[in-house]
Amino acid sequence: MPFAETPLRDEYAAAVERVAGRTLDALRGGGGTAALADPDTVVPRPLLAAVRVLGADLFAPQLLTGAEPDGPTAALLAEARRAFPAPVPASPEAAQAIAWQDWAAGRVLARTPYADTAPGSVPDSASDHVPDRVPGHGPGHAPGSASDRGPGHAPDHVPAPLPGPAELGWQAWSVRMAQLSVLALPGLDGPVHDAARTDHLALARGAVRAMLRRDFTTAVRLARWLAWAGAEDRPPHLEVEPILDRIRLVGIGAVRTRLELAIAERLSEGNPR
Amino acid sequence: MLTQFRTETASASRTATSTEADTLASLMVEDEAVVSDAPTYLPEAAGGLLLLGLLLLSPKGPKEKPTR
Fold first, then answer.
1. CB of B46 within 8 Å of any CB in chain A?
2. CA dihedral B39, B45, B48, B50 (to 10 degrees)
3. Residue A271: phi, psi to the nearest 5?
4. How large is the ipTM?
5. Measured between CA atoms, how close is A144 to chain B, in angstroms?
6. pTM to 2 decimals?
């Protein structure tokens, strides 16, 4: 029981750290489930908020080992998405980032029986031309149960595509890509991933800039994108391992950032795609 | 569809307050850190500290006696 009232942000941020720690333990343990909450137990609202914030990263232990997303975590994420509809931030850029993060979570949930729980107010600007390139869900894959449904059958709307580095400049674009690092997971593919493939050099520049600014959170997120692109045999413009070594050596405090670092390391080691 | 989890406060369908929504938005979309010159931990600096310690502990150099 807290002795003093803590600000809501501190409470939710602490919950995010706890959930990220569980996910990190599962990732290091070889792809098991994070066991975030016991069934038939009361789920505290901060835990739901943390699950909502981490989104698709909750399934990194499974996706990085080629396994299917686990049901209990999917149920919890679906519950969190119902309890917390997509927030409407002040800027349209932040709204777009949240919409893409929700898109990623929806895509992963579409592979589970909890596919129909899209957040209520996802901005649905945009396009309908997103390709489905998730392995195992290609055109030859017969639709069947909910777990067999491809991401194209997910109820989530497809957000508007990001402007490229030509419009935003590589500095601003790389920062926005860092905000979308949750999309850099095996089994997810779409316009943002196409941009990461096309503008690999801008990602590398952004990672170097973040390292020089000592902004290790942004740096590790961009290194994650670089590792993701490297796992696709893209020609490297920048070696990822020294960046990851440096960030590991410096020691980053936030567990959420350590989770991103662990995901980047797994991606750079190679993973099933 | 989902029945195995119960939220702490009433029902899961309780709408998130604007404070909660703002908090979530700030946690989901983090901007880049501001540039600061705050000292950060440098593991390589441990070698420098060791060298400084050895220099301080080393015996003093011989002094020439004053000649009269």
1. no
2. 110
3. -150, 165
4. 0.78
5. 18
6. 0.75
